[in-house]
TrEMBL record:
It is found in: Golgi apparatus membrane. PROSITE patterns: PROKAR_LIPOPROTEIN. GO terms for molecular function: glycosyltransferase activity. Residues 70-104 form a coiled coil. Residues 184-403 form the Nucleotide-diphospho-sugar transferase domain. It is an enzyme of class 2 (transferase). It is a single-pass type II membrane protein. Its main location: Golgi. The keyword Membrane applies. The chain crosses the membrane at residues 12-35. This is Glycosyltransferase. GO terms for cellular component: Golgi membrane.
Length: 475
C-alpha cells in the first residue's frame, strides 16, 4: 500500500518536471524567434544603417516640404501685407475726402462738427460763440519742395513770410537785418527773381524760389510794391494748405521785438491797422447828418480804418483760405483794384441779397505794438513818454520815402540817436523824389479811388490826399 503511494507521488512529480521543461523549451523557442541576436547583443549594423537611412530620407523629405511651405507662407504674407497697405492707403484717402466734404458743408454744421455735439446755453453772461476755427489737415502733396523747406524753417508750425524782387533789395536788407538782430529764426523770403535768390543766399537768409509761372513771374520781375503785394494772396495759399500759420510781412518794416510773443492766435486773421487812435483803429459810431430829413436827420454809421494787408497773421483754416481765394480771384479780373481795399472788403462786407459774405474771425492788433508810420511820425515822436515805448514792429506804410525812414527808425530805436526822426515831416511832400515802385504805388491808389468815386473827376470833390501828384521818378 505504501509502495503504491510512493509510485503515485513520483509519477506526479515527474509529470510536473516534464511540463516545466516543455514550457521552458517553448519559451526559449519564442525568444529565439523574436530575439535572434539575444537580449543584450548589439543590433546588426547593416540593419541599423538601413533604418537610419530610411529615417534620414523621411526627415529630409519633410524638411524640404517644410521649407517650401515656409517660403509659400512668407510669399502669401508679403502679398497680404502689400494688399493691406494699399487698402489702408485707400481708407486714408477716403477719410481725407470725407473730411473735405464735411468742410464744404454749411457754417452751422461746421460748428456742430467742431463742437462734436450740441450744447445747452449757459446762464446769462456766460455764453461765448465759437471764435477759433479748426485748422485744415496738412497736405504735403501740394508742394513737397516747399513742405521740406518749411519743416526746417518754421517754429511751432508758424513763420514770417515776405515776397521780394530786386526792386526792393535795399529795403529787404534792412528788413532781414532787423529780424536777425532780434533773434527771430522762423522767417522766409519768397524770392521773385534770381537776383533776390542770390542776394538771400549770400546773406544766409532762408529763401524759397518758386517754380516758373508766367502769370506770376511777369508781375514779379518788374512790379512795384503794390503789384508784388497782390501776388501774396495766391502764393500764401500753399503755405496754409501745408498746415502752417503765416505772419505775412511787407519789406518796409523794421522789427524791434519778436512778434510771435505778442499774438493771440484766436482768429482766422489778426492784422495791424492803418488807424492812428482808438477810434480809427478799433471802430466807432460815426453820425451822418442830413438836415433835409428833419427829426431823422442824424443817421448812425459804423466806421473803422482798414486792416493793413502788408502785415497780418493768418491761420490755416477754411475761412482763411477762402479769403485768399476771393482776393486773388478779384485781383486777377478787371477792373484793376488795390489789394488792400479788396482784402478789407472781403473781410468786412456782410452777406446781403446777391452776395455771400466771408465768415472769418478777425482781430485788430494793438496799434502801439504793431505801429504804422503815421502813428510814429505824427504822434509818438512828439510825446516824451511815448518815445520811451518800444514797439514790436514799425511799418513805413504811410510814407513813400521808405528806405530813409526805415534807417532813421533803426538809428532811433536800436542805436539810441534821439534826433534821428526829427528831419522828416509828419506826412510826405508831393515833390519828394521817389523810386519807380513808390510812384507806381501812389498812382495805383489814386486810380482805384477814382474808380470807386467817379465824381472825383470834379475838382471840388477831390480830397487833397487823392490829387494825382507830379512825381519825379528815379530809374
Amino acid at each position: 500500500m505504501a509502495s503504491r503511494r510512493e509510485k503515485s507521488g513520483q509519477s506526479v512529480l515527474g509529470s510536473r518536471i516534464a511540463v516545466a521543461i516543455g514550457i521552458g523549451i517553448l519559451v526559449g523557442c519564442v525568444c529565439a524567434f523574436l530575439f535572434p541576436h539575444g537580449f543584450f547583443s548589439p543590433p546588426n549594423p547593416s540593419l541599423q544603417s538601413r533604418r537610419l537611412v530610411k529615417s534620414n530620407l523621411q526627415i529630409d523629405s519633410s524638411s524640404c516640404d517644410s521649407s517650401e511651405r515656409i517660403s509659400m507662407l512668407k510669399s502669401d504674407i508679403a502679398g497680404l501685407s502689400e494688399k493691406n497697405a494699399e487698402l489702408m492707403k485707400q481708407v486714408g484717402e477716403l477719410n481725407d475726402k470725407l473730411r473735405l466734404a464735411e468742410q464744404g458743408k454749411g457754417h452751422a454744421q461746421e460748428q456742430v462738427v467742431a463742437l462734436d455735439k450740441p450744447f445747452k446755453a449757459g446762464p446769462f453772461g456766460t455764453v461765448k460763440g465759437l471764435r477759433t476755427n479748426p485748422t485744415v489737415m496738412a497736405d504735403e502733396s501740394v508742394n513737397p519742395r516747399l513742405a521740406k523747406i518749411l519743416t526746417e524753417v518754421a517754429v511751432r508750425k508758424e513763420l514770417i513770410v515776405a515776397l521780394a524782387n530786386s526792386n526792393v533789395k535795399a529795403m529787404l536788407e534792412v528788413w532781414f537785418t532787423s529780424i536777425k538782430r532780434v533773434g527771430i529764426t522762423n522767417y522766409l523770403v519768397v524770392a521773385l527773381d534770381d537776383g533776390i535768390a542770390e542776394f538771400c543766399k549770400s546773406n544766409e537768409v532762408p529763401f524759397y524760389k518758386r517754380d516758373p509761372d508766367e502769370d506770376i513771374d511777369s508781375v514779379a520781375r518788374g512790379g512795384g510794391n503794390h503789384a508784388v503785394s497782390g501776388l501774396k494772396f495766391r502764393i500764401l495759399r500753399e503755405f496754409l494748405q501745408l498746415g502752417y500759420s503765416v505772419l505775412l510781412s511787407d519789406v518796409d518794416i523794421v522789427y524791434l521785438q519778436n512778434p510771435f510773443d505778442h499774438l493771440y492766435r484766436d482768429s482766422d486773421v489778426e492784422s495791424m491797422t492803418d488807424g492812428h487812435n482808438n477810434m480809427t483803429a478799433y471802430g466807432y459810431n460815426d453820425v451822418f447828418d442830413e438836415p433835409k430829413m428833419g427829426w431823422a436827420r442824424y443817421a448812425h454809421t459804423m466806421r473803422i480804418w482798414v486792416y493793413n494787408s502788408g502785415f497780418f497773421y493768418i491761420r490755416p483754416t477754411i475761412p482763411s483760405i477762402e479769403l485768399l481765394d476771393r482776393v486773388a480771384d478779384r485781383l486777377a479780373r478787371p477792373p484793376s483794384a488795390w489789394d488792400q481795399a479788396v482784402f478789407n472788403e472781403e473781410l468786412f462786407y456782410p452777406s446781403h441779397p446777391g452776395y455771400v459774405g466771408l465768415y472769418a474771425a478777425k482781430r485788430t492788433m494793438d496799434y502801439y505794438l504793431f505801429m504804422n508810420s503815421k502813428v510814429l511820425f505824427k504822434t509818438v515822436r512828439k510825446d516824451a513818454n511815448l518815445k520811451k515805448f518800444k514797439p514790436v514792429i514799425i511799418h513805413i506804410n504811410y510814407h513813400p520815402d521808405k528806405l530813409p525812414r526805415m534807417k532813421a527808425v533803426v538809428e532811433f530805436y536800436v542805436n539810441g540817436k534821439q534826433d534821428a526822426l526829427e528831419p522828416f515831416p509828419d506826412g510826405s511832400d508831393w515833390d519828394v523824389t521817389l523810386s519807380e515802385s513808390a510812384s507806381t504805388d501812389i498812382s495805383a491808389q489814386v486810380v482805384f479811388a477814382c474808380t470807386l468815386f467817379p465824381n472825383l473827376k470834379d475838382s471840388q470833390h477831390v480830397p487833397r490826399q487823392l490829387t494825382v501828384p507830379s512825381v519825379q521818378r528815379v530809374e
